[in-house]
Amino acid sequence: MSAQIPEQTGTSAVPVCPRHPGVVSYVRCQRCGRPACAQCQRPAAVGIQCVDCVREAQARLPSTRTVFGGRARHGRPVVTLTIIGICVAVYLLVAVFGGSLQQHLVFAPGVGDVQPYRFLTSAFLHGGVLHLALNMYALWIVGSVVEPALGRWRYAALYLLSALGGSVAVLLLASPDNSSWFTAVVGASGAVFGLFAAIFLVLRRLGRDATQILVLIALNFGLGFVVAGISWQAHLGGAVVGAVLAASYVYAPRERSTLVSGLATAGMFAVLVVLTMLKYALA
């Protein structure tokens, strides 16, 4: 006697990747069990995991810190590349729209009180392609070392405040009684000198020889007194601000590095603002 087996009419759903619903995948994540397409698969110690589970696992890991308390990151120096990109973009915009754009961004002590944004925007302007190339080359060489050592936010703060410090030094050493009050200043040199001071202190703190950096700083600073058109005042201001901030970053106690760095950054900004206000009030 034979029995008839009923035909199965139900079919199971085809598994698709939740991140890419149009892609069929029979490979499942070993952690969450969801389908993962080839684009979302990540090799694990055992089997395959999806990108969401990998990202979640990485987020749970304690962040690795540099010796100076910055968050350790791998890959290219993002902040340095961003600054270089902005400087190049501004240079191209000035080349396209002419000097009218540059006239609204340069810094001179005589206009800084009514248009304070110029204290910072001038650091992203350059007087020519050679000026731009030299500053960006120095920024790349030094920034590639300082940014990974300090971490992104400390490095960005040091760069911007050094640039601001260069403009403030130009203001403090200018007089409304002569042409220095209305002499325009452009360039990232003040910020770069802040990085020069920072890399010197970073190398010293790590016990490495920093003689070459010291010689480089001295040579570049000396050029401001023998080559016309170079603002040694901006170099001096950037170097002083960079040295003070870098010292607070690299010599802060490791367990309080974030607190000390934050207070030093805020304090330096406050000092620069107060000095600027006092100079304009007494001018």
UniProtKB/TrEMBL annotation:
Q: Show the stretches that span the lipid bilayer.
A: 78-99, 119-143, 155-175, 181-203, 210-228, 234-252, 259-282
The record gives the membrane topology as: Multi-pass membrane protein
GO terms for CC?
Answer: membrane
Q: What is its main location?
A: membrane
> Which InterPro entries does this UniProt record tie to the protein?
Peptidase_S54_rhomboid_dom, Rhomboid-like_sf, Rhomboid_protease_S54
**Keyword hit for Membrane:** yes
In this protein, which residues make up the domain named Peptidase S54 rhomboid? 115-249
Keyword annotations for this protein, in alphabetical order, are: Hydrolase, Membrane, Protease, Transmembrane, Transmembrane helix
Localization recorded for this chain is: Membrane
**Pfam families the record matches:** Rhomboid
The entry lists its GO molecular-function terms as: serine-type endopeptidase activity
The answer to keyword Protease applying to this record is yes
Q: Record's superkingdom? A: Bacteria
GO BP terms, alphabetized:
proteolysis
The family note in this entry says:
Belongs to the peptidase S54 family.
Write the protein's name: Rhomboid family intramembrane serine protease
Naturally occurring in which organism (per UniProt): Georgenia yuyongxinii
